[in-house]
Write a structure and sequence with these properties.
heterodimer, A: mainly beta, Immunoglobulin-like, seven-stranded mixed β-sheet, 2 helices, 22 strands, B: mainly beta, Maltoporin, Chain A, globular
Chain lengths: 372, 486
């Protein structure tokens, strides 16, 4: 009788979690590291490799993190890992001397990767590190969730741009577009991204030279460029914002900051960012067209050709949100944990750090940092 | 008139604010004895010590109704990580037993419970220290209230002179609400059934068997907060590692299983005893979502237990009772994660519990004296593979009880008692630490021809041996019970 009753009991698994091993070889892709340590495939030592779990946290609410330095064979071994997805960050500081003037400069070699450890016990990987931050203009910070408040206040949202290139770029005629609020079948195979609302910098797209941004400079674009701390103490002062989104087709308050203007008259919204899940597209402004109309949501979509996209970032407070942007412009999601009215912000791990995957490129910070 | 008003208010207050639950108020008042004192509610037989409903009729031949109220309160810093700073559990109980005819007996009870947990630290589930390693928590300390009724019915049929059959059913539903972020709502539902049989070999020896399947479901609803914020919850796997979940959802935790309990009972003029073995099996599954369900983990536990209890009546008038009980239990449980079915937690617990007690009844003066010693030792052995924590260490708890009952008149009885406790926990557990406790009990009983009234108050304090200044926990329990015989 007992045998019949316990027939449904399951056998205990033999394989245990927390016993995975991840071995990664770090390969120098830049040729800048010390040549004496090179092997045939440029495996380099003393690279700090950090694994950050996307799955497990400790009691103090920090994600599980492990750091190992590569040995002389360029190998870093991580033991006793859990079944999880990990962000792998490899970085090494390299001193370079200029032969001409003898000045020594410090550069960082970096690489980043997302790995999913499955139930296989041993995982072996190779990571190429090199110079980062040479991709040009990019969205550096998005503050979307609003300050800590009980009044549904989100007017202090802002976007920060960063010029990671070594040359001056001009913002003339560039446009900001919000991603469509629904993903659609085939979004990874069409040559455009779908969005709503278009706000444009003044000036001539592509050729204008009136609004420069120097190398290493930030530009803060506020939804409303005024001092928000007068309304919500935990908010921020955006009077020094470089730009402000302004919609002339509604009663938007126009602060002294220069305007980025709504160019679709049918749209009567200020450029408010979704407080949970959304995306931003920065385009060169040279081309766009009207797309389909969503009857249910009463939204007119616009289509932005992918080849005009300068940068795009999708964010969500939840890691499991369905993607709205094709992986061709952003393969990940920034902003995990920046829940509505939490006062948190999301910014690149380092200014200019860009691997086209916001999960890896961005981190969530406890307080917004406009302009720095 | 004033006295009458006071009495009415007092009874109303006690019945609403100070509640009760079980039926052992006399034993609670005499130093909270579990075994030493022979009593209507402490008989060593198949019903009371083995939970075999088939022995309901033989346990108690009377028809009665009982109304009771109880309030159990504790407060202070001496608690585990996920426990509440202060807890107050209030019960109202109505129960009754009726012998329908010479062959059938029916028992029924209805209890309403209000369980207030104040300053509950993060955990947002009923039993964060249950067997399974899955614990739902958030980031705040807050107040949580569980409210709900519990219904229990039992039926016993005397089939033939040698065969007795029984069936029982328990249904309980509780609704829990936390007042602070993340403001979850927990719906807890319990269904337990029981099928029981007893075969009486002769006047002394009986064999029993009970089978009890059960189903428990906890539904936790995480909703958008009133200020628009999204809930952020921590889903612990073990006590150290958790996964973060952002957003609204509904989580269902299901516990299913059964127990099978073969029993032997010996009844004679001076010696009564029961030996029971118990096989207990539980599986526990977690799901997210309502329509589409996402599997979130599995836990399984098995327990093998043996309990024996004996009481011997000595003396010409059988006014001395010597009692002994021993309980052994081995628990083996493990949990696996849902993605690849890997083992992430294993727990084995061996437990021994010994009770030795004695009582003696004097006739002049009309005094009953009782003493009891309980020793409980657990040896948990736990592997937390995610946190790479292996913990093994003894948790020992011994208690000495002393009590007396004085019959002021044939109707009035005064009772009092003391309980001294020493709790010794291996450092690896980091739950309570080592503490000592002292509690005192006072109570009364009034017997009328066909009704009786019992009351008890228990007050005490537990003090951490290493941090007596800060780490204490107070206990104040009160209960009142009225029983009427028909």
């Amino acid at each position: 009788m007992l045998a019949a009753l316990v027939a449904c009991r399951k056998p205990m698994p033999i394989s245990v979690d927390g016993s995975m091993q991840y071995t990664v070889f770090i390969q120098d892709d830049s040729g800048l590291s010390d040549a004496s340590n090179f092997t045939e495939v440029n495996l380099i030592e003393k690279v700090r490799v950090t694994l950050t779990s996307n799955t497990y946290y400790s009691r103090d609410a920090t994600p599980d993190q492990y750091t190992v330095y590569t040995d002389q064979d360029g190998k870093a071994v991580f033991d006793r890992l859990s079944l999880s997805s990990y962000n792998v960050l490899a970085e090494r500081e390299v001193k370079i001397s200029d032969a001409a003037d003898g000045v020594q400069n410090t550069v960082f070699l970096r690489a980043v990767k997302l790995v999913n450890l499955n139930r296989q016990t041993h995982h072996v990987d190779t990571l190429k590190i090199g110079m980062t931050g040479s991709r040009g203009l990019m969205i550096n910070e998005i503050y979307f969730c609003g300050p800590v408040n009980d009044a549904n206040y989100v007017h202090d949202q802002f976007i920060e741009l960063y010029n990671a290139s070594g040359r001056q770029v001009h913002l003339d005629g560039m446009m900001f577009c919000k991603t469509a609020i629904d993903s659609f079948i085939g979004m990874d195979s069409v040559d455009y991204v779908k969005g709503i609302w278009l706000y444009q910098f003044p000036g001539q797209p592509l050729t204008g030279l009136s609004y420069p941004l120097n190398p290493g400079e930030f530009a803060v674009i506020a939804i409303d460029a005024y001092d928000h701390t007068q309304f919500i103490a935990s908010s921020i002062d955006l009077r020094k914002a470089d730009w402000e989104f302004f919609n002339p087709y509604q009663g938007d308050y126009d602060s002294p900051a220069p305007n980025i203007i709504n160019i679709i008259p049918e749209s009567s919204n200020d450029f408010f960012l979704s407080t949970l899940h959304g995306g931003l597209i920065l385009t060169d402004g040279s081309e766009w067209q009207y797309g389909d109309y969503n009857e249910r949501r009463r939204v007119q979509y616009v289509h932005i050709p992918i080849n005009t996209v300068i940068d795009a970032v999708e964010y969500s407070s939840s890691r499991k949100s369905a993607k709205l942007l094709t992986y061709r412009v952003d393969a990940g999601l920034a902003g995990f944990g920046a829940t509505r009215y939490s006062g948190k912000s999301t910014e690149r791990r380092l200014p200019g750090f860009d691997s086209n995957n916001s999960t890896l490129d961005f981190e969530t910070i406890n307080h917004p940092t406009p302009g720095y | 008139m004033k006295r009458l008003k006071f009495l009415v208010y007092f009874i109303l207050y006690v019945s609403i604010a100070l509640p009760l639950g079980a039926s052992d108020k006399r034993l609670k008042a005499v130093g909270d004895m579990s075994l030493a004192v022979p009593d209507r509610d402490s008989r060593i037989n198949l019903y009371q010590w083995a939970g075999n409903v088939a022995w309901l009729k033989q346990n108690d031949s009377l028809n009665w109704m009982r109304y009771a109220a109880r309030s159990d309160n504790e407060w202070g810093a001496l608690h585990r990580h996920w426990d509440a700073k202060q807890r107050s559990r209030d019960d109202l109980l109505f129960s009754g037993q009726k012998h329908l005819d010479g062959q059938q007996t029916f028992y029924g009870s209805l209890m309403y419970t209000a369980d207030f947990r104040l300053g509950l630290n993060r955990a947002i589930e009923r039993q964060p220290y249950g067997l399974d390693p899955f614990v739902l928590a958030d980031s705040t300390q807050g107040d949580m209230t569980f409210l709900g009724p519990k219904v229990n019915v039992a039926y016993n049929y005397w089939l033939s002179p040698k065969w007795y059959l029984g069936a029982s059913l328990t249904y309980a539903i509780n609704r829990g609400l936390k007042q602070q972020f993340t403001r979850p709502e927990i719906i807890n539902r319990v269904v337990r059934a029981g099928l029981h049989a007893v075969y009486r070999i002769n006047g002394n020896l009986s064999l029993g068997l009970s089978y009890g399947p059960y189903h428990i479901q906890d539904i936790t609803k995480e909703v958008k907060q009133p200020d628009g914020k999204s809930p952020i919850t921590y889903r612990y796997r073990g006590e150290y590692k958790f996964r973060l979940k952002v957003g609204t959802y509904e989580r269902t935790a299901t516990y299913e299983g059964f127990n099978l309990r073969p029993q032997i009972a010996w009844t004679s003029d001076r010696l009564n005893g029961v030996i029971m073995t118990n096989y207990y099996y539980q599986w526990h599954e977690l799901f997210d979502g309502t329509i589409t369900r996402y599997y979130d983990g599995y836990f399984q536990a098995e327990q093998y237990a043996m309990t024996t209890a004996w009481r011997y009546f000595a003396g010409m008038r059988k006014n001395t009772a010597i009692s002994f009980a021993y309980h052994y239990r081995f628990t083996d449980g493990w949990a696996r994660e849902p993605q690849a079915g890997l083992l992430f937690h294993r727990k084995r617990i061996t437990r021994h519990h010994i009770t030795i007690g004695a009582s003696h009844k004097l006739y002049k003066p009309a005094l009953m004296l009782a003493g009891e010693v309980q020793y409980d030792v657990r040896n948990p052995d736990e592997d937390d593979y995610l946190a790479h924590q292996y913990r093994k260490g003894t948790i020992a708890n011994w208690q000495a009880h002393a009590g007396l009952e004085y019959a002021l008149t044939p109707s009035w009885h005064l009772r009092t008692g003391l309980i001294y406790q020493e709790y010794d926990e291996a450092d690896v557990w980091n739950y309570f630490g080592d503490y000592r406790g002292l509690r005192g009990t006072v109570g009364f009983g009034y017997r009328h021809v066909n009704w009786e009234l019992d009351g008890v108050v228990q007050y005490g304090r537990k003090v951490n041996i290493n941090d007596a200044g800060n780490d204490q926990r107070g206990v104040l329990n009160a209960a009142l019970q009225f029983r009427q015989y028909f």
